[in-house]
Amino acid sequence: MKLLSLFLALLLSLNLGCTRKKGVDTSASEPQTNLVIGVLGETMAFDKTTLVAKAGAEITLTFKNTSTVLKHNWVLTQPGKENEVGMQGIKAGEAKQFIPDNPAVLAYTKLVDVKAEDTITFKAPPAGEYPYICTNAGHHTVMKGILITK
User: Fold this and answer.
1) How far is CA 17 from CA 43, 103, 120, in A?
2) Percentage of the chain modeled with pLDDT above 70
3) How does 62-99 read in b/e, with b if 16+ C-beta sit within 10 Å?
4) pLDDT at residue 29 in the model
5) CATH superfamily of 2-149
6) Residues 124-139: tens digit of each pLDDT
7) CA distances in angstroms from 67 to 93, 99, 101, 116, listed in the order given
């Protein structure tokens, strides 16, 4: 019974994290060239659901995985391709860091271990809205955001 109660409490905390309403990050309304993004503990959610960058600029992005349990990554995709990339990431598996060989992947971090980070540099795509997701097995369905390039 105690194990069942613990399991239900864990399940409830994960579910609350997954369904939590996420807001737009208003602190980054102007285009940035240095971006920092992380995760919200164990909730399978990014700490920012909107990033703003200068179109065509060289961007430095630091991804901080503050989770104590799950590995995560940050993957930027072409608009409308995030589910395809996420599903292909599952098939690619951990050996390939859940990164599929797909031209819709525009930039990505490695699969970051718990309490670790990765910094990448990439050229921001043309002006528009580009989805970013975590492609660790199934995370893309809840762990997502938008990079706006201006």
Assistant:
1) 4, 31, 27
2) 81
3) ebbbbbeebbbbbbbbbeebbeebbebbeebeeeebbb
4) 78
5) Cupredoxins -  blue copper proteins (2.60.40.420)
6) 999 999 999 999 999 9
7) 20, 20, 27, 9
